[in-house]
Amino acid sequence: MAVSTGLLSVADLTPAEIQHLLESAVLLKRGRRQESHLAGRTVALVFEKPSLRTRVSFEVAMRELGGHAIYLSPAEVGLGKRESVSDVARTLSRFVHGIVARTFAHGSVELLAQHATVPVINALSDYEHPCQALGDLLTILEKKGRLKGLRLAYVGDGNNVARSLMLAAAAAGLDFAIASPPGYEMDGPALERARKAAGQSGAAIAAMAEPHRAVEKADVVYTDVWTSMGQEAESEVRRRAFAAYQVDSGLLSRAGKGALFMHPLPAHHGEEVAEGLLDHPQSVVFDQAENRLHIQKAILIRALGPGGHAHPAP
Ligand code: CP
Ligand code: NVA
Description:
Layout: H1 15-30, E1 42-47, H2 53-64, E2 68-72, H3 74-77, H4 85-95, E3 98-102, H5 106-115, E4 120-122, H6 130-144, E5 151-155, H7 160-172, E6 175-179, H8 188-201, E7 205-208, H9 211-215, E8 220-223, H10 235-241, H11 249-253, E9 260-262, H12 285-304
The chain binds phosphoric acid mono(formamide)ester and norvaline.
């Protein structure tokens, strides 16, 4: 039985729902304190891959909302190996109120959601990273005061982070340009989905090969690792393919004045991001990391809270 208030993809959310999550996150951040929205609620964090930000921010979020999180490491669950994904979903549903899952295959997080009777939240799969993208919108909103009409340039791999970000930008009305080397472009179906959403919001979605062209007039320059978790065997080949796709202060200076530099972290200094760029005055990467906490509180309340609202409507 699928539960609708989970979050597998940014495409699961309407623009109004995204707006509501952002508003909730702003309120939760402003009045950060011990709350009781999720008192008595427990989530399982089922992680097939390592994590710093996602694990810690979900654990702190549950604690500050009055609930509890149980972390299950890659070694413990053996998703689809020690036990089938559907049996894990059905068993966990008898113990906890929600499942936060970081998987290799996107199909695994979908399968969990299909068989769980509690909401499932995608904490990164090989296809999407929706919590990251929504936290990133929150950061852009805070720094620029608006989303609609801004231009976001993504330089690098057409990966999970890029895909969720593109879908989020399209829904929120930000123009999105991605520059990737041949063979590592954004997939056609995701581009199509984003263009459809952009048709409603008025945003433009563009894919190209030249980083310089993508960053022209950009308000945000964003990059992510060349080799994602699970692709380590390809890292040498990827290092060569992406050599001309490093974001450095030169590329950043070709963007619009005061453009933000963003990266989801972890960063590979000297690869996708030049040494020292994280400390550039235009870099907001640690604000970005912090905002994972606030947006995930909003996502958790929507999924598990009474009525799904962080605060009563004003
Ligand atoms: N950005 C992000 O998801 O970081 P972790 O892999 O450390 O959770
Ligand atoms: N694209 C990266 C993001 C890490 C947060 C990965 O999947 O490893």
